[in-house]
Amino acid sequence: MALMVIVGALMCASANAAEIAGHTISIPGWWSIPFMLLLSCIACVPFIHKPFWEKFFAHISVGLGLIVAAIYMTQLGDHGRHVLGETALEYFKFIALVGSLFVVAGGILVDISGGGNPRVNVLILIAGLLLANIVGTTGASVLLIRPFLRINKDRMKPFHIVMFIFIVSNCAGALTPIGDPPLFLGYINGVPFEWTILHCWAPWAVANGLLLAVFFVLDSRCAVASHHHNPNKVVIAGWGNVACLGVVLLGVFLDRILATYVSPQLAAWPLGALLMVTAAFIAHRRADPRILKHNDFHFGPIHEVGLLFIGIFATMMPALAYLEQNAASLGISTPGSFYFVTGSLSSVLDNAPAYLNFLSAAQGLKGIPMNPAGVLKFSETYPQYLRAISLGAVFFGACTYIGNGPNFMVKAIAESAGVETPGFFEYIYKYTVPILLPIFTLVWFIFLA
Known about the structure:
The protein has 18 helices and 4 strands. The protein has helices at residues 2-13, 33-48, 50-75, 77-106, 118-151, 158-167, 181-188, 195-220, 239-261, 271-286, 289-294, 300-325, 335-348, 351-365, 372-381, 383-396, 405-416, 424-447; strands at 20-21, 24-25, 109-112, 234-237.
């Protein structure tokens, strides 16, 4: 009943609010109410009544998403349906990549013998730093979180999970377009592949170096010592799935390749995402059951991520549109302001669309069109702005569980293994505020101020 009241209020209040001025459609700010409700539910309901959330989170997420979809279809007509179609396509590409990496990695065994200690754990996180820029933060997270949990099973603390999310699931992926979805979107829209390495390596090194130092201090103070005294050895099995992982990575580039060398019209078809899904299906069917059992693989984590992000993708449409249209009036005009605002939105929205919207807003401020040629010109003429948006989107995705797809997935995998993880607010006040924000502010001061 409450949702129906909200729908009615939004529909009545916005009946005359969506105006077409040339090709620009003004989105009222109050259309973002379902998005704020969804964020509030994700943050509060598990803390208030966890069994209720576990039973009804899908109904809440999809229901609020349907409210926004109904508003767009009834109030914006053809434009609304066009935006919904684009958002659905973006969601499919997102979940195809995240889900395929999750499924394929579930059949790959990375087994580290011995026990965890600060030195070994830092080496695993450094491996994640490098691996994330080859297979993405999602792929690196899924491949390494299970061995990380296993070797620390008798000394695991909540900070282990949080710092893993900070480093491997987010900040690691700022070097290449493969590393994190926002940078990949920039690449397919015209940013040169090597641009991120050339312009982001120094802040990447500073941020991740400081995070590794903080983790080492926290882990060294961990009172519980490992009971394993055998030397650490790494064993990798499931090479068939490793080959399928290569196919998934090919799918990342397939749409760009086909549009460039075959036909630009193929860009409208998610052939790369379909290839990823096919590779994941084959990988799961051919996976060694012993590896799946050893990894405790099941579809619960990706099921939860998929349903939550249906609601997030749908409800964030008006929020992102409003911010894009009002960037100048909100005082967003310097690299530093784009860094913090892109980061703030990336911490509570999926960081990929936040990146694209603020890239569009920045180019609009400079009078540069949002097309591949314009993006290339912007990257060459205003690199400080693009670096600010790129770092804000990638780094600040670590600030909450919903800032980046791998965050919730790592949390779900850890909880399914019986590991305690912080709640939504505890994650923020106990780890994000005292650890991440000072480091991100220092990055701004050194590289963007």
